Amino acid sequence: MSFVFYGNCDFMSLRPYLDTLKQSNLLVEIKDKVKLEYEITEHLQINHNKAVLFSDVEDSTFPLLGNCLSSRNQLELVLNKDKNYYNFFQQSLLNPQQPKPVESSLTFSNKDSVNLSKLPIPKFFPVDGGKYLTSGIVIAQFPDTKAPNMSIHRIMVLNNQQGAIRIVPRNLYKIFHENKENGLDTPIAVVNGYHPVLALAASSPTPSGKSELSIANSLLRGNLSIARTPRYGIPVPSDVEFILEGKILANEEVDEGPFVDITGTPDDVRSQPIVQFENIFYRDDPIFQTILPAYEEHFILMGFPREAEIHNRVSKVVPKVHGVYLTPSGCGWLSAVISVTTHSDVDGHKVGLTAFEAHPSLKWVTVVDEDIDICDSKAVEWARITRAGANDITILDNMRGSSLDPSRRRGDNTSIKVIIDATKKRDKTGYDRVIPF
Asked: What is the pTM of this model?
């Protein structure tokens, strides 16, 4: 199968983005036949900082794309190389723009009954409970206002028409339970094959009363349009590769998992609702999409929106924030390094506490000065060892933890939180490094 890429990169959809990746040498094309069980994983692991396009996937006629947003270079392309992208991202959260409605969409060019076995959905690791759709953006509407909610949820394939969806206690959880209390299923649309900005918006801590679709439109500088799905009238981005329409069943659950989540460890098996898929719509020659768990794309999608929120909050307590980094060794989720300019020796502690408020799942915070490259683990470790003394390490216990942290207390999901103030102290000298790293 040949792929058509488009030169107009202002058109905010997947295909021109792939064209941009190709021009930037950030796209790898695998033309040999690949197996869905583990082999997709191997290629994505090897090419972990580049997008990978598989043209020949076993048991499917559709090509598969992975690592769509798996590096900071790709992130800069997605945000149009905005130099202050934390500020741009935060302003987009605070100033959403309603997308333009359109009557028709190329996504609805083809329609079939859903058969999940024909889609290139991988099984990533031997411990996983089955094949997992990891890249599906789920769109549902609040029952009372019909306002749309957009979020990413893993779905374990059960059979050709059903999957078990993991729902955490956020907006989709509220929508589902409100419908369930009224004896109603929850209609959903699952979007696949999209511009990465949609995934960033869907992964963001959205302000109350704001729509992720409107945030995505703001991030896309007003270039997003929406259409309605045929059966349930759910608003969806108009230029995506696939849309699966169905419903989350109110009164049917099944064990979901195990699943290797962001920490690289198997998440708990839980009883979760069942999705009944009905129809699938897709463009001509569409490209399916996946996200490899516990690797860079997973880290960026979950972590970058929290970095922006931490940056915004910490900027209010210190003179300047130079950078925020949720580290890969901290699973892109549990450990942050924050570079700041301080005006007193207590600022490092304040920064840590503020970061925990901004990102409650955070477990470790290391605060450094501007001279430390927060993306250089060697430099950060050096700062911890040479600039943090007995009074610069704070351990807080019985704090709200992350359900993804294997070391949490399972009964109440509490954990320790640690602040390491690795900044220079004003009453001492000898902190400056003479030789380069």
From this structure: 0.92
